[in-house]
Amino acid sequence: MKSIKIATFGSHTALQILKGAKDEGFKTIAICEKGRTAPYKMFNVADEIIEIPSFGDYEKYEHLLIEKNAVFIPHGSFVSYYSLDKIKKSKVMYYGCKNILKWESDRNLERQWLQKAGLKLPMVFESSEDIDRPVIVKEHGAKGGSGYFLAQDKKDFEEKIKTKKIGKYQIQEFVVGAPVYIHYFYSPLDGKLEIMSMDKRYESNADSLGRINTNDQVALNINTSYTVVGNFPIVVRESLLHELIEMGENVVKASRKIEEPKGTWGPFCLETILTDKLEFYVFEISARIVAGTNPFIDGSPYSYLNYDVPMSTGRRIAREIKNAVNSNRLNEIVE
Ligand code: AMP
Questions:
Q1: What is residue 203's three-state secondary structure?
Q2: pLDDT tens-digit map of 273-286
């Protein structure tokens, strides 16, 4: 335990990962891009900061983490900078299932996983000819909702797509409802699933359109965009928890079918739209810690029920590593 350190990229959810690791008794390392160390110094969460020119250069510095006996915690910024091939080749101790990233990074594979879990998904239109309702068009690999557009119908889609410089995309049914993002944690050490917290995103300009009346929206020719700028905590009606627990359990079970035999473990998030009929439509899964857990550095109403200390998802990861080390099972949760 004393010799193991916890490391992550200085970005995304690093504050809670490093703070949580320190609270659990680990020494911590932040790998920061040159000139971007200020948050990790101001909030004093890193025992050591390694500055590298860019996250893209991480490969050249991996040996430092190996020498320091560090377990690396992946998060959204890491996954977007580092290809699956590189992740697989890396010799640094990595917390989580490497192969599962393949399933979350490709919209078609992601859909197969969610379907195997029996979840309700928005319809996907393979051809624009089939569009018979409002749709949201998503470029593959689009980050944080930028590069999406809405179309009312087939004609609107065809007019808009002509004006876009867009690569491969998916046409999804636009589900009207409230976005709810559920943050889960699955521990293979004791086979238990937990709901850690939930959020909704603060998106520009989608969340500001209500401040502009319809006439002005039309006059200004505003296109809805979903660029994430932050996150709000939410709790759901308690009667919905039963279903959310079942959905999370089914995702874990389905992951064992797509990535035999162990499936996924650690944090994951289901991104859903909850309709006025109280049906959850799942439009995305992230198989790692998500930025929506950031409002809960001091715990959430849900984690408060399970723990007598403030338990963020970041700290929960460190607790898992500590439990694994203490029971000689670290090799079951790092790759
Ligand atoms: P994403 O980047 O895929 O998480 O999506 C960005 C935003 O688009 C989400 O916060 C949702 O509000 C919205 N969104 C994505 N997919 C759908 C959908 N099928 N129906 C309605 N809204 C959606």
A1: strand
A2: 999 999 999 999 99
